[in-house]
Amino acid sequence: MVDFSNAYTYAVGALLCWGVWGIAAKYSVERLDNMSVLLVTYVVGIGLVLALDPTSPLDVTFDSGLAFSALAGLSMSLGSVMFYRALDLGQLSGVTAIPALYFVVAFVYGVVVLGEPTNPSQIGGIGLACVAVLLLVQ
């Protein structure tokens, strides 16, 4: 039975969805221009978000939560633009591996800025992940 109260269940779900996203995106940029693919991707995404909970009121207040949400949307969108362009120019197997290391940025931020604890196995895992991507893009 799948435990839907566990963060890792959702993390694995995201991994699978993003894997499919990379594959579908590669086929998309081979058939449409990058900006059209991006536009369709976000329109469908917004539609899905609204369909998941159509009765949920938007609770947007003008505070730091809104600013961070806007920053998240900006960085996600710019990252997507760059990702689609990279897919258009490169191979699926190598191009998708590089941005998949985004967790390294979040890990370093968590440790350095937020003061989250770390241990040698986590540091080793980050190093091995980076080595793995370097090997994949060769």
UniProtKB/TrEMBL annotation:
Pfam families: EamA
Signal peptide start and end residues: none
InterPro entries per UniProt: EamA_dom (IPR000620), EmrE-like (IPR037185)
Domain EamA as annotated: residue spans: 7-137
Keywords, ordered alphabetically: Membrane, Transmembrane, Transmembrane helix
Highest rank taxon of the organism: Archaea
Keyword Transmembrane helix: yes
Transmembrane segments: 6-24, 36-52, 64-84, 96-115, 121-137
Protein name per the record: EamA family transporter
Source organism phylogeny: Archaea, Methanobacteriati, Methanobacteriota, Stenosarchaea group, Halobacteria
